[in-house]
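Backbone shape codes:
***
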Amino acid sequence: MATTTTATTTKLWGGGKSPFNVEYGKLMMWYFLMSDAFTFGAFLISYGTIRFSTNGWPDPNEVFKSFPFAPEGMNAPLVFVSIMTFILIISSVTMVLAVHAGHNMDKKGVVKNLVWTIIGGLAFLGCQAWEWNHLHHEGAWWGSNPFLNADGTASSTNFTNYFFTITGFHGFHVFSGVIINIVMLIMTLMDKFEQRGHYLMIEKAGLYWHFVDLVWVFVFTCFYLV
């Protein structure tokens, strides 16, 4: 008795629903953050290549030792940038709380925590503006480096060129994140998300903000600690 075997083809995805079970906008945000990570990665790899192929480099404890309103002659190595980092980390916490409030459809919680996140972002940008202005008054800028190497020899402009380029690029991302959060705040106050029945846009903005905070950890390590 002959038997016949019939091959069946299983259709894995017929369209209409994401195979990743992720909302389209959130998936696109992840793609954007991935491409942005490659850009930051290229900057930092380039910096590291130059940094460790150079015999001399300025000592961060000597370059970043100033503090606003500090008495004349007072040295506070890395204290100011540590405060900047703390502010950005706290703003990431308030962003998490805003997203959590959105999941619970808590409009007041979203508004309160978005306001704190925006304040944190503006405070960080204000600190960075002070730091840039202070370094500029000391003679540091693109193409100009007044700081000596740690061994007392003359330093090249590689340090300042990379510092202002990479921290400026990151600062632009923080500024963009603040603008995005302000837009999210306005939309929340206008009940746009209540009408939609979800706060998914807050979660997407949160992904961007956390990415900016994470990148700062690498920038902080490369320029201020190494």
Observations:
- The chain has a mean pLDDT of 90.
- The CA atoms of residues 111 and 185 lie 6 Å apart.
- The chain has one domain: 22-53+78-225.
- The longest helix spans residues 158-189.
